[in-house]
Structure formats: C-alpha cells, structure tokens
C-alpha cells in the first residue's frame, strides 16, 4: 500500500498501528505523538521522552493513539522509560527553577538597563541548561546578563530573541474566534500578512477585529486569500462588513 501521494514518504506503509500514545508536556495545547516500542501505557502514566532538547517529563493523555501516516510515524518521539519518583521530583524542581529564573532575569535586565521582555524560560529536566526566550525592539547586549544567570543558577544559558508572533506561539492562548491559537497548535510557518487581505475579503478594518493576541494582523487572513484573488464571479460569498 502506498503512502501519501506526492510526499517524500510515498511508497511507505500506511498500515494502521496502535503502538503510539499521545503525551502532553507541561501545559502545551497539543499532544506529542510518541512511540511505545510495544509497551502498554495507561492514561495518566508519567513518562520520560527523548526530545531535541534532551529528556523531557510528560504524561500520557491518549492511549493508544492510532496512526497510519508515514510522516507521523517518522516524527514520533521515543519513550525512554516510565518516570520514577526521582524524575517526578526533578520535574517539580524544574518548574520552580523556571518561575524563579524568569523573575530574576526580568529584574536583572531592568538593573542592567536592557530593553527586553522575558517571555518564557525552559530548564532541562535535570537543570544542566536553560533557554531564555525574550522579545525586544532591537539588538540587546545580554552578555553580562548571561553571566549573571549562569552564576545564579549554575546552568549553561542560551538566550533566544523571538518576534511577537513566535512569542504568542510559545505562550499560547485563545483567539478572538474562541479557539486555541493556531500558532500554538499547528501553524509553524508564518506567511506575510497584509491589510489588503482583509480588504479583499470585505472584512472590518477595525484593528481590534483583525489583530491577534500578538498585536499583528491575524494569520488566518491568509487562509482563504487565494480564493478571493479569483475573478469576482468565482469568489466565495463575503460576509457583510461589521462596524
């Protein structure tokens, strides 16, 4: 049986498999697909999963999670083992370190006169490294801040500057549509958005109605823009503008 038509996995098996589970890390919106290697996990089981950033603590929230797409199978993360009491304790300390490190970083940045906003802090499970995400209008000389953070928490520090849309994806939230933000669930590639897209769709140009949580134009304005570029007699019906 062939795989998805036209993709790099074409020709690979699409047999339905149930040796996968859905694991949630922290308070993330999406479940992460993980391989069980044949072991059976129940809902609520604490597990350690290998990720790009190293071992991560999570809980099984869907078991099994049947998949058939080769692209999904190839991206599944392997479950290393069930979490021990030591892992649970390390996870609790990790959350406490992240909250304390965020406060300390914000305070120290103000003392150093750095114009930056700390968005999120991620510590590794056993506290060997930490990533500080921040937003700023321009470049920031954070060398002294990194030294202070490393000395204060005894970890290898990495500073990552993100844009407003990336920050919204990191923090998550609910959009004006009432649904979870696209950028925190499935949308990873940001397309350029222009006010012309709203005009073509005959939408209100009130900034509060066409702006997202990040303060930028809604990413969803691009979803149907190609349809509205068609000749008028082939366009979808536009809703009446609202005040």
Structure description:
By secondary structure, this protein is α+β, with helices and mostly antiparallel strands. It folds into three domains: 20-83, no CATH class; 92-162, 2-Layer Sandwich (GMP Synthetase, Chain A, domain 3); 181-234, no CATH class. It has helices at 70-75, 85-111, 143-153, 164-171, 195-200, 207-210, 225-228, and strands at 20-24, 32-35, 46-51, 54-62, 77-82, 117-123, 129-135, 156-161. A five-stranded mixed β-barrel has the order 1-2-5-3-4. A three-stranded mixed beta sheet has the order 6-7-8, with helices on both faces. Strand 6 and strand 7 (129-135) form a beta hairpin. Helix 2 (85-111) packs antiparallel against helix 3 (143-153). The longest helix has 27 residues, at 85-111. The termini are far apart. The model has no long low-confidence stretch (mean pLDDT 86).
């Amino acid at each position: 049986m062939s795989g998805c038509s036209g993709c790099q996995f074409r020709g690979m098996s699409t047999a339905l498999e149930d040796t996968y589970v859905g694991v949630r890390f922290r308070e993330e919106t999406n479940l992460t697909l993980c391989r069980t290697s044949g072991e059976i996990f129940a809902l609520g089981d604490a597990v350690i999963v290998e990720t790009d950033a190293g071992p991560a603590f999570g809980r099984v929230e869907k078991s099994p999670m049947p998949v058939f797409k080769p692209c999904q199978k190839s991206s599944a993360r392997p479950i290393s083992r069930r979490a021990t009491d030591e892992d649970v304790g390390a996870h609790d300390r990790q959350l406490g370190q992240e909250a304390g490190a965020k406060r300390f970083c914000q305070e120290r940045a103000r003392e150093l006169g750095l114009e930056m906003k700390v968005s999120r802090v991620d510590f590794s499970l056993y506290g060997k490294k930490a990533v500080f995400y921040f937003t700023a209008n321009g470049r920031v000389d954070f060398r002294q801040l990194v030294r202070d953070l490393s000395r204060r928490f005894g970890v290898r520090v990495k500073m990552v500057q993100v844009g407003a849309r990336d920050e919204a994806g990191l923090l998550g939230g609910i959009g004006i549509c009432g649904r979870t933000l696209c950028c925190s669930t499935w949308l990873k590639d940001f397309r350029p958005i222009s006010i012309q897209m709203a005009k073509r769709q005959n939408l209100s140009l009130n900034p509060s109605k066409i702006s997202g949580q990040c303060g930028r134009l809604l990413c969803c304005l691009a979803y149907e823009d190609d349809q509205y570029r068609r000749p008028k007699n082939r366009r979808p019906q536009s809703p009446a503008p609202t005040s």
